[in-house]
Amino acid sequence: MNQIKIEKVPYAGWPNCYRVTDGEIELISTSDVGPRILRCGFVGGQNLFYECKPQLGNSGEPWWLIRGGHRLWRAPELVPDTYALDNAPVEARIKEGETLSLLQRIEPETGLRKEISIRLDGAGCAQIVHRIENTGSKTVRLAPWALTVMAAGGRGIAAFPRRGSHDENLLPTNPLVMWAYTDFSDNRWSFTRKYLLLRQDPRIVSPQKAGLFNEKTCAAYLLGTDLFVKRCEASRAAMYPDYGCSFEVFTNNDFLELETLGALVDVLPGNSVSHVESWLLRRDVRLKAFSDDELDRVLEPLMQ
Asked: Which tens digit of pLDDT belongs to each residue from 201-212?
C-alpha cells in the first residue's frame, strides 16, 4: 500500500488547490470555486479530465461554466436549479490526514449545499462521496448526479446488466434511454452484446446522449492507453431519474461525460443524501478490438 499525501498547491491559475496522491495517481481539486475535481491521472502523466482553458483560474462569474473536471449536480435536470452557480470559494477540510472534503457555500438559488469528499486507498483506487444537504424550509425531491468530464479523443464504455437468454429472462432487465437528439445511427455509437460504447470525436459538433440502469453500474474511459473506471451501486427497489437511469453518457466536440445518478429521494429540511463512486486507473491498457472478449478481459477484473 502506498502512503497517501495531501498538499496545497497552485493549479491551472487557481492558487488554492489540493493534491491528493499515493505517489502513483493524483487527484487535484480547487477550493477557489466548486466543488470541482480538476485533474485525475498518473503522476507525471496526462490529465484524463477535460479542461476548458479560457475558464480556468477565474471565479465569481455571474453565469454557470463547464470549466471541466468532475462536479456534483442535482437531477432531474432543471433550469435554473440544476445550473446553480459554483463559482465561489469552497471550504477545504483534511480529515484524519487521508480524506479531502470540499464543502460548498449554501446555494442562494436552491438552499442546497454540496460536498465532495476524496479518499485514496493506496492501491490505485479512490472513493468519491457526494453529499447534498437541504438547508431550506421545504422538502426537495432530487437525486445526486455525479458528472465526470473526460478529455477529448477517447472512448466511453458502459456495461449492461448481466445478459441472459429468452428462455431464462422473459421480462425486461433494464431501460436504454434516449434523448430527443439521440441518434444511434451516428457512427460514434457502437454496441456489443455486453457493452455500450461512445467515441469522443473533436470533429463532430452535434451532441449525443443515452442512459441505462445497472445495479452494478460500471463505466470506463480509454484515452490512449490510460483507462479510467468509475463504479457505483444502484437499487432496483428505488426510483431513478430520466426513466430509471443509474448511468448516462454524453458527448460533443469538446469532451465526453460519464455520469452516475443516485436514487430520487425526498430530502427533508436539515437532511442530506449521499452518493458514492469508486474510481480506479490502469495504465498500458491495449485492446485488440472493442469486442466482448477484449472488454471482458480488461474490465471484468476491475468490476469486482
From this structure: 999 999 999 999
Backbone angles phi, psi at 250, to 5 degrees: -135, 145
Closest CA to 124 of 38, 196, 50, 26: 26
Domains and CATH numbers, the chain: 5-302 (2.70.98.10)
Euclidean distance between CA atoms 213 and 99, whole angstroms: 30
State pLDDT tens for residues 56-75: 999 999 999 999 999 999 99
What CA–CA distances, in Å, run from 266 to 114, 133, 139, 140, 239? 16, 11, 6, 6, 11
Q: What are phi and psi of 60, to 5 degrees?
A: 80, 10
The CA-to-CA distance between both ends of the chain, in Å, stands at: 19
User: What pairs with residue 265 in β-bridges?
Assistant: 142
Rounded to 5 degrees, what are φ and ψ at 261?
-130, 140
| Amino acid at residue number 106 | I
Closest among 166, 208, 213 to 190, alpha carbons compared: 208
For residue 230, give Cα distances in angstroms to 108, 157, 221, 258.
31, 11, 9, 8
